[in-house]
Amino acid sequence: GRSAVGDHVKQLERMESCGASHPFLLLEGDVRHANSCPVYDEDRSAEGIDGSAIHSGGDIDELCARFLVAGSRVGVITTRDAEGTARILGQLTAWLDFAHSRSHRQAALAVASSVVGLRRWEAAAAARAREREELVADLQSFGVASGPAR
Hints:
The protein is mainly alpha-helical.
């Protein structure tokens, strides 16, 4: 909801800093009619007006421009009606499911790759150990004692 005392600004700040990978603000309805929608706590605004109340489509445009200029992580999605909102939320859910499963697949591939890398390292270490043992055997056959140098 829109607030005359800045509650919506606090909500947007929380969205910006919450750590969600894809925070977004969903605006439903025709923004040209924003001036006909009541600001829910305007009667309290005399106590603490902060000038951030959104009264018109121009105010919404200004908010979106501020997001853009500030490099905000919060995206803005607009829909015309409840049907459009349901449709876009379904699409967003599918996209987030895909992105989440993709990141899990990439993590699984990274683990598999590190296991293969570990197995290669273990095989190389075993080969080096065999080469050392062969060198020790060769040195002993020539009468060179193996053991710590004194």
